[in-house]
Write a structure and sequence with these properties.
- By secondary structure, the chain is mainly alpha-helical.
- The protein folds into two domains: 339 residues, no CATH class; 129 residues, no CATH class.
- The protein is 65% helix and 5% strand.
- The chain is built from 26 helices and seven strands.
- The strands form two sheets. It has a five-stranded mixed β-sheet. A two-stranded antiparallel sheet has the order 1-2.
- Helix 1 packs antiparallel against helix 3 and helix 10 packs antiparallel against helix 11.
- Keywords: Membrane, Transmembrane, Transmembrane helix.
- This is Dolichyl-phosphate-mannose-protein mannosyltransferase.
């Protein structure tokens, strides 16, 4: 096939791909959610998945098969659009809100900033809240919608653009953009354990990290040897790094640890190997000190941050490593549901593991002293990234050993940003070796085989990764959708609440909804809402199934929705909360249904004091 013929074929393929993408968007948008959906994947029309699948396939073929930069850019746009379509399904299908946990508390903070109850500086990580408030002011949309834009579109979009830019700066290869966009759409940092595509500042900070790294690399390689904060790249890098403090300080701490490692490496190289390429790069010591100082100053203003740090230290000193019990319990639950830890690991981390091996191979190849003499900048970049991995990995180990829940997976997400770039550099090097004669590559049998293998690997990796980008029964988790019925039922219950009776819930109380409705700071410091922050406000499976009407001395309300019944009965097969327990709510004479809006039911449970 001649170059002209191939270009025509690729243009036609891109046309088909963009039409399929548009068809997918329309299909999703015209089938809005009408209630709670246990699986966002099954509830989204098959037409959407078909259109997105065609789009990804076409993008892969053109990305790695076309020689024209314009065609490659078009394929990159198509692949990025398809990813954002999958990520933003909750927006496309008009979810009232997405994120039934932490995101609800962030909604409460955003409401308080919007109404002036608190200032942005009262929140430890105010960036996404301010973005949502400003979008609401500009568009007139409610915060329940605008708070979904940053997690679903803005920060994934920044990540999608930044990874290819990093590769182009570091490698200078024609394979940088195709490889960069291919690995970016995998969203490897999103591990679904503690990094998510919903309003969760830690996750947004992780997706913002490649942009900061891109500016760092641009600054390191800019002309000149001395410090220059007034240059365009120096100022941009400094501002981006400072801005990350307000997206989330925890991930900024990991970033600062990387900067410290890079700055230390520069000092050592200048001292002992002054002729090495790294010795000629711009120093980042001043940037590191400034960002670190601002980070510490910001953290000291917030008791939440200092108490977290004290908790980590205290746990390590007094308790030691405490990582086994929770993992063992969750593993036992998985087995009871017909799954296994090994199966879940493969679903969540199969592609991640491959990239870790790739990144490790690239780093070891560099450490072994076999750099490519024709690419000194790439060699230096691999050294920077390899050394930069060490401090956040150390932080990961410390948090893993401390009793801090699954916070160590946040650092794993940050680490995967660097691993993604290192692994992608390895893929670029492999593609360069496999396509030595670039002018005859497209026409050769070997070139066609290479293209076929690359496209197949890309499509398979995308399918594996995007199958777990949203919580679903595939990974033994329920959809994080929040419905209009959820909000409406709480609004009525809170408005007419007697101020004394606890409103309980399945597994947990109404704390997140109280945060979202009244505002987090208002709920904590002013309301004294019965049951708020009380573990006893969450009904356990044992109580629900056997002694719901004899467990509590005083009356209490119980909020039950379609979400709970579908999650506990359909997804978990009654493992903790049985169908009989749900049926008993409407037959037990000591349980009275007082509210029902079609999606949420509120029951009043008679306490044992009534018998006295």
């Amino acid at each position: 096939m001649t170059d002209n013929t191939a270009a025509v074929v690729h243009k036609a393929a891109l046309t088909v791909g963009f039409l399929a993408f548009a068809f997918a968007i329309v299909s999703a948008h015209t089938t809005p959610a009408t209630g709670y959906e246990l699986s966002i994947y099954r509830a989204t029309p098959l037409r959407f998945w078909g259109g997105v699948g065609v789009g990804f396939l076409v993008a892969a073929v053109v990305l790695f098969g076309a020689r024209s930069r314009r065609l490659v850019d078009g394929a990159a746009l198509l692949a990025g659009g398809c990813l954002l379509a999958v990520v933003s399904i909750p927006l496309l299908r008009s979810y009232a809100f997405y994120g039934a946990g932490d995101a609800m508390t962030h909604l409460g903070w955003a409401r308080e900033i919007q109404t002036g109850v608190i200032g942005p500086d009262a929140v430890l990580y105010p960036a996404i809240h301010l973005i949502a408030v400003e979008l609401g002011a500009l568009s007139g949309l409610d915060l329940t919608e605008t708070l979904q834009f940053a997690p679903a579109l803005l920060f994934p979009g920044v990540y999608l653009v930044s990874i290819p830019l990093c590769l182009e700066v570091l490698s200078g290869s024609r394979w940088a953009v195709p490889t960069g966009i291919a690995v970016a759409v995998l969203l490897l940092p999103i591990n679904k354990v503690s990094v998510h595509i919903l309003a969760h500042p830690s996750s947004q900070a992780i997706l913002f990290t490649p942009f900061v790294l891109y500016l760092l690399f641009r600054y390191l390689g800019s002309p000149g040897r001395g410090f220059s904060a007034t240059s365009a790249t120096g100022a941009a890098f400094g501002l981006a790094a400072l801005g990350m403090v307000f997206v989330h300080p925890q991930e900024t701490m990991a970033l600062v640890s990387v900067l410290v490692a890079v700055a230390g490496l520069q000092l050592v190289v200048r001292r002992y190997r002054p002729t090495a390429a790294i010795a000629s790069h711009r120093p980042i010591g001043v940037h590191t000190v400034v960002v670190g100082t601002v980070l510490v100053a910001w953290l000291l203003r917030h008791e939440r941050a200092t108490s977290r740090f004290e908790g980590v230290v205290s746990s390590l000193v007094t308790s030691g490593a405490t990582t086994g019990d929770g993992t063992a319990e969750r593993g036992a639950s998985l087995v009871a549901l017909g799954g296994s830890v090994e199966e879940l690991f493969l679903k969540l981390f199969a592609v991640t593991t491959i990239f870790c091996v790739l990144a490790g191979a690239v780093a070891l190849y560099r450490v072994a002293g076999r750099p490519d003499p024709a690419r000194p900048w790439r060699n230096a970049a691999v050294t920077y990234l390899s050394i930069g991995l060490l401090p956040p990995t150390g932080i990961f180990v410390v948090v893993f050993l401390a009793e801090q829940g699954d916070h160590y997976f946040r650092f794993q997400g940050f680490i995967m940003v660097i691993v993604t770039i290192l692994g992608a550099l390895g893929i670029v090097a492999l593609l360069e070796r496999m396509t030595v004669d670039d002018r005859r590559r497209a026409a050769s049998t070997a070139g066609a085989v290479v293209l076929g293998v690359v496209v197949f690997a890309f499509v398979l990796a995308v399918a594996l990764q995007l199958a777990a980008v949203h919580q679903s029964p595939y990974i033994y988790q329920a959809n994080q959708q929040v419905t209009d019925a959820d909000f409406d039922a709480r609004a009525v219950a809170f408005e007419f609440h007697d101020g004394e009776t606890v409103i309980a819930g399945i597994r947990s109380g109404q704390g997140r909804y109280i945060d979202a409705h009244f505002g987090r700071e208002t709920a904590v410091w002013e309301l004294s809402f019965p049951g708020y922050g009380d573990d006893d406000a969450g009904v356990t499976g044992e109580t629900f199934n056997t002694n719901l009407t004899t467990r509590y001395e005083s009356d209490r309300y119980l909020m039950v929705g379609d979400r709970h019944e579908r999650q506990e009965v359909d997804l978990y097969d009654g493992f903790r909360f049985s169908q009989a327990g749900f049926d008993r709510l409407d037959t037990d004479p000591r349980v009275e249904r007082v509210q029902d809006n079609g999606g949420i039911r509120l029951y009043r449970i008679e306490g044992t004091d009534e018998d006295a």
